[in-house]
Amino acid sequence: MAERPAHLPVLLIGAGRLGGALLDGWGLTAGVAAYETMMRARTVSGPARAAAERGATLNPPDPDLLAARTVVIAVKPMALGEVAMAYAPLLSPHAVIVSLLVGVSLADVSRAFGGRPTVRVMPTTGIAIGRGTASLYATDAAALAAGHAMFDSVAVTVDLGNEALMPAAAAVSGSGPAYLFAFVEALEAAARDAGLPEEAARTLARATITGAAAHLHALGADPADLRRQVASPGGTTEAALKVLMDEVTGFAPLLRRAIAANISRGAEIAAAAAKPPAS
């Protein structure tokens, strides 16, 4: 009989947007078997119900939590203190903490959970369909291994050698899907303004973006090379790109400002989460 992997069983605390996406991804890819999963959630989401139907344990009694070897924290950053106070005394001293908390340092999470080995992970919601990305940072090898065990089946994973890079990774990748969705919204609106019927604008904008992304992924080519292949010199695409790539108002300066705003807000969230609760 095969030996049980060291990272099992798993306890997921929080089954909202990210926690639910992770449950969906595990269900799709068999990354973590449902029978090896315990979930604690105040609000039972659709993904949590589906995981329970597959055999996961929903809201088990406190004594059962001692068995967890990996504990995934998928709650709001400001809830760290409350969650740690409630759960740290119930967990095995050998449990590894996988933190999905945006803007909260590795040291702060580990300290809140009694110094347990911790890995920070910044995933995208694409994990729900097994096509996410995830940035990982840990100083403990076992914690890093646990992070990979949770996410390698549902995401392309990147190890960051310096925690100071995590805010940039979060701003680029963690929030990146929202930027793309906003672009698609704008492209659909521009298509309608150009006279296309609503359904045609919707179909063309969405299919074009997903097709281009699949092309980029399949070829692994430099996006600048692909852009040049589409844009003939002096043609209509080049005329549009002169607007989109303007040095003052185009994509590059706009995204630099967006990433900077994201990182700045992350620092504010981290500062708020680090404040002790009011007595």
Plain-language structure description:
The protein has 279 residues and is α/β, with parallel strands linked by helices. Helices cover 49% and strands 13% of the residues. Helix 1 packs parallel to helix 2 (46-54) and helix 6 packs across helix 11. The chain is elongated and about 70 Å long.
The parts where pLDDT drops under 50 for at least 5 residues are none
Q: What general form does the structure show? A: elongated
* Span between termini: 53 Å
* Strand-pairing-aware structural class: alpha/beta
Beta-strand residue percentage:
5-15%
Order of the strands making up the biggest sheet? 3-2-1-4-5-6-7-8
The proportion of residues forming helix, as a percent range, comes to 40-55%
Average residue pLDDT: 93
Number of beta strands: 8
- Write the H/E string, N to C: EHEHEEHEHEEHEHHHHHH
The value of Rg in angstroms is 21 Å
The total count of helices amounts to: 11
Largest sheet: 8 strands, mixed
